[in-house]
TrEMBL record:
GO MF assignments: hydrolase activity
Keyword terms, alphabetized: Hydrolase
Organism: Phytopseudomonas seleniipraecipitans
Residues in the signal sequence: none
Cited InterPro entries: AB_hydrolase_fold, Dienelactn_hydro, Dienelactone_hydrolase-like
Domain Dienelactone hydrolase: 17-242
Keyword Hydrolase tagged: yes
UniProt protein name: Dienelactone hydrolase family protein
Taxonomy, superkingdom: Bacteria
Hydrolase found in the keyword field: yes
């Protein structure tokens, strides 16, 4: 079986999580998958499975566990109306600082699995999860070797828990995939974020895709298959280079 469900005890409660493992039963390096604002749903599970099929043990925690039961949502339906009215109450229960505070619990869970190879892990986040992945890496820098953010928003703001403020702590290499059309990560914010990384000596690469915010998600109305497949190639090559097996 390559898909398990578990519950992880965090400082704030019980976090349901999905775990996907390689079908060959050999295990692999661990990845934490930080979801987008749409929450846990079939498309997220399928993406986590694709990463597992590439040879990784993938932990997909439900970042809305503090809210309670919800959905699953169909993003195409949600985005037809006022999506903030639907998702806003859930989003208000989480954030960069809260996700970072949960990092030790996620790492403790992965550390007790016999199929995880290597101590240092990777993380990937999408939309709101992009910044959360970076925040997690800043909270336990010695454990994260690689972090990828796809259409991550608000990566450099004046907020106390803005991801760019983690620059001085990060030891991970970053891959930042931005969109040409993304109001949550405009050019001036990208410049601010990249300057913070450069000033701190963080190894990173940024790439701007000819797409809209959310292009990687197959159930989003803005899904762009060509750009998404390019993103998958970049992501898998990034993790293959930065994460150690065995």
């Amino acid at each position: 079986m390559t898909h398990e469900q578990t519950t992880i005890t965090t400082p704030d409660g019980q976090c349901p999580a999905h775990v996907f493992t390689p079908t060959d039963g050999q295990g692999g390096p661990a990845l934490i998958f930080y979801m987008d604002a749409g929450g846990i749903r079939p498309a997220e599970l399928a993406m986590a499975q694709r990463l597992a099929d590439a040879g990784y043990v993938v932990l997909l925690p439900d970042l809305y566990y503090r809210y309670g039961a919800y959905g699953p949502f169909d993003p195409k339906e949600v985005f037809k109306g006022d999506f903030r009215a639907v998702l806003g109450p859930l989003m208000a229960t989480t954030g960069n600082a809260k996700v970072a505070a949960d990092t030790d619990a996620y790492l403790a869970y992965l550390d007790q699995r016999s199929d995880v190879q290597g101590e240092r892990i990777g993380a990937v986040g999408f939309c709101m999860g992009g910044g959360m992945a970076i925040a997690a890496g800043g909270s336990r820098p010695e454990r994260f070797a690689a972090i990828a953010s796809f259409h991550g928003g608000n990566l450099a703001t004046d907020a106390e828990d803005s991801p760019h403020r983690c620059a001085g702590a990060l030891e991970a290499e970053l891959y930042i995939a931005a969109a040409e059309h993304d109001g949550s990560y405009p050019a001036d914010m990208a410049e601010r974020f990249e300057k913070a990384m450069s000033d701190a000596g963080v190894t990173f690469r940024s790439e701007t895709y000819p797409a809209k915010h959310g292009w990687m998600k197959p159930d989003f109305p803005v899904y762009d298959e060509k750009s998404a497949e390019h993103g998958w190639r970049q992501m898998l090559a990034f993790f293959a280079r930065t994460l150690v097996r065995g």
